[in-house]
Amino acid sequence: MLASLAWAAPPKAAKQKAKAPPRAAAAAQTAPAQAQRWAKSLGLRAQAGQLLMVHFYGEAMNPRSRAFREFVTLIRGQEVGGLIILNRVRSGVARKAEPMAMAAFLNRMQRASKLPLIVGGDFERGASMRIAATTQFPHAMAFGAAGDLEATRLLGRVTAREARALGVHWVFAPDADVNNNPDNPIINIRSFSEDPRVVASHVTAFIEGAHSDKSKRVLVTVKHFPGHGDTATDTHVGLAKITAGKERMNAVELAPFRAAIQAGVDGVMTGHLAVPAYEPEDIPATVSKRVLTDLLRDELKFKGLIVTDAMDMQGLTKLYSPGEAAVRAIEAGADLLLVPPDPKTAIDAIAAAVKSGRLTRKRIEESVTRILAAKIQLGLNRQRLVDIAKIDELLDDPDDEALADRVASEAVTAVKNENSALPLANPENACYFALGSGRFSVLGRDFIDEVRKRAPHAKTALLDPNLPESEFESHASAAASCSTLVVAAYVVSAAYAGQVGLPGNYPGFMQRLMAAQKPLVLISFGNPYLLKAYPGVAAYLTTYSTATPSEMAGIKALFGEIPVRGHLPVTIPGAAPFGSGLSIPAAR
Asked: For the residues of 395-419, what is the DSSP string, one character each?
């Protein structure tokens, strides 16, 4: 494809003409008169409220319920300026919002608010990351493996269209982190690559796509500044640290952020990361003026919106109280505080800091004006409500599904294939094990169903990492009668997990299977680095994603229904260098 990245060597950065800043960013810079009037019309507490974005789950909610009244209190009483959609997690499983219920809730909240609310979402792999009945796209690293910049550009365009259809205006994507640490427990496949040039190219393409349709325009945000890829700590549970020096960070971590700023990105999200190269104190970048103002504003010349990562993450809360964290972030240069653990306390603290002289009213009005200018540029002063009648025709378009399927297929990468174990020669004589992520998870069910369609008499099992050792022993014994063993592993980075390896009793089960001296085919639906833990497998496929299109592509590759032609956008230490990828033609 014309937009594909070359894999013979790391791709060269494309020369780009200097672009005028996008309309939303330009509006924020020039502080339009209406935004200034709005800002001046607000009292101090209302101005502080505009700097907050609180979470919601998009569920149907009775207006007489306590939960609904609490939202009304936040919006009318505290004059909070924004909302962000999150997944409700129950029994370890994330529940996505339904489009109609979410739109109805947002319309009620918009009507309740004096000023229009700005609504955000972490749509790194499209709206499907948070909302049902939207196009399911693979994770970012699958796009990096496919090497198709036009596909990433279309991802941005589709994400913007589906977001606006649902009432979401601010997309907290793409991820600009360079995943050069294979043990990173929270970024991993959320990153496009370990190569900063690859990441920069895809970040730029996403921004261009998201900004391409002016009628469906959203704010686009890169994260997690100044770079979360070379860390071994999940900032949901503690403060991460980047130990690299300025020279390395300038060449690697900062490169995608510079490209994003050049491409007219609207926002930059901070990371709860200690950065000794720029901040000698052992504090998160989120509350560092040296990082947010001196580096991002002054050195990199970013003029848009600076938004914090979620303020309820332990990388911040272990260090500061909710009020102190809010004040420190604004002192550092942040414009918007995302998911403060106690919104009223944050507003109280900001107002108190202004009255005491710790913060100036001018500093507050700078950020308020940026946020209000963005709302105006998005057209929220003219139309803030979701057109519910048009939602269906703007979501989950067949052409978008075809794009997701194509990227997923192009991304599938074969790193090992001893004795031509792939595609399977005798599917009926193989044993298939899906290593699901837990008792209530659906991961692995589709894999087993699809295998049974193709090999109805084969032995299959969907497993749970917390099953007793006796059950794993039983499955390993049953595998002795099979000619080939196929293991489908579902491992992705997740908040609070702390690692991206096989959980529970799975590692012991893998050792039992490998001791059986049978050809073992390992398919990683997610973390591509699993091979370094199991280098003795006969064949290794990775899809870089657990999304349905990637799962189907992996199954088709296993049975020879599609060719395998992806390339690693990362290095698997001790196993495969960057750019590796075997070519396996389709068998049928």
From this structure: SS-HHHHHHHHHHHHHH-EEEEEGG
